[in-house]
Amino acid sequence: VKLLYAKVFGVMWNYANPSTELTRLNPGNDPNGLANMTITGAPSPAVGTGAGSSPFDSFYPWAGMEEYNIIGNEVGPKRGEAGFSRTAHDTMVYIPEFFFKVIHDSANNRIYYYIADGRAPGFEKHPGSGNYLGRYNTGEGHVSKSGTAPLARITRNDFRVGATGKGSKWSQYDYATWCAVWLLYLVEFSNWDSQAKIGKGYTNTGHTAAIDNGGTDVMAYHTGRPVGTDGDTAVQYRHIENPWGNVWDFIDGININDGNAYICTDHTKFADDTTEGYVPAGIPMVCTNPDPNGGGIWKYIKGLGVSEIVPWGFFPNVVDGSEVTYVADGLISRPGWRVLLVGGHWNDALRAGLFSFDFVELSSFANAHLGGRLLKKP
The whole model's pTM is what? Predict the structure, then answer.
């Protein structure tokens, strides 16, 4: 009888060390004995139409992150197949099903992050995997299409209603899927600083408005940025355009009250300012401004809590890092009921990034720099 074993990849973060680098795990250095793959080399994002590469291009789930059209609520052709169009149909990036495990060794200031391409003892299916995520920021008409301007000036609930109006399996970008994306990035790049590893994104100070979707369409490779000044161009990670910069993305399936996060993975129960249908994460997060009516105070994320109830979650609970140390992305927050936004916008500079985290806004708030992204269940 031939036994099939899951491939297990992992990284370790020593959060007492200010470096943004994590340690890759392999059978020779993993004290938990879980990582069974040895990765050599590092990802090399592309600039413009140039070639890029990653040792993870050969392994699932990363290799399965491809672009698909959704046509009439059904999965249509993928990029490279006949009929595929980034302008005629919703263009989505598939996040393949994968399994995860997170171990917090608080005695030694270490967090271990693992991804398995199949079932493995002690691993759980990541609740954000197996979904189709908008390649682009949501455009007018609640579409994910190239050439559209990012939809803005509407609330998180407005994005929710527009997304669910497309069909029963549609929602907006949710917390579980965002957590799946950042975990895939983290294990692949082994570094918290997404801007330093891939590109700053459209974030340079001096920008006054968002750019249209499609800025990375000229690229042949899935990760990197177009030709131009870094900070003045779009950026993409495995076909997901502008996961940071340009406009913030509203994230659904999470409600925050006085820094306490409540999580829901059932998109039919998403609602604002409530705990009904949600579970408490149990990790109090940092409020960078204790005045609920005051202006925002940016801090840099230094530490994370690990929830026993939501072990796959991202919960910043220590700040006063910097733009080049620890997690290297910004945090801004206030007490009271708040909604979550991630990524940063067009002039957030180095405060932006994949892990930039904002729960400063009320559910009633809308602005030109707050956008969304579509999500579709299989």
Answer: 0.97
Residue showing tokens 């690229």: 219
In the three-class reduction of DSSP (H, G, I as helix; E, B as strand; rest coil), residue 160 is classed as helix
The label of the residue with tokens 């943004």 reads: 20
pLDDT of residue 5: 84
Contacts of 274 (CB under 8 A, 6+ apart): 255
Mean pLDDT taken over the chain: 97
Cβ count near 257 (within 10 Å): 16
Structure tokens, 32? 């938990």
The contacts of residue 10 (CB under 8 Å, 6+ apart) are 24, 25, 30, 34, 35, 112, 113, 114, 115, 187
Closest to 209 (Cα-Cα) out of 157, 143, 150: 150
Query: Per-block average pLDDT, block size 10, for the chain (378 residues)?
Result: 75 98 98 96 97 98 98 95 98 98 98 97 97 98 98 98 97 98 98 98 97 98 98 98 98 98 98 98 94 87 98 98 97 96 97 97 98 97
Smallest CA-to-CA distance from 314 within 132, 126, 178 is with: 178
C-alpha distances out from residue 151 to 23, 115, 254, Å: 39, 33, 21
CA angle 227, 232, 236 (to 5 degrees): 65
CA 272/CA 251 separation, integer angstroms: 11
Largest CA distance in the chain: 65
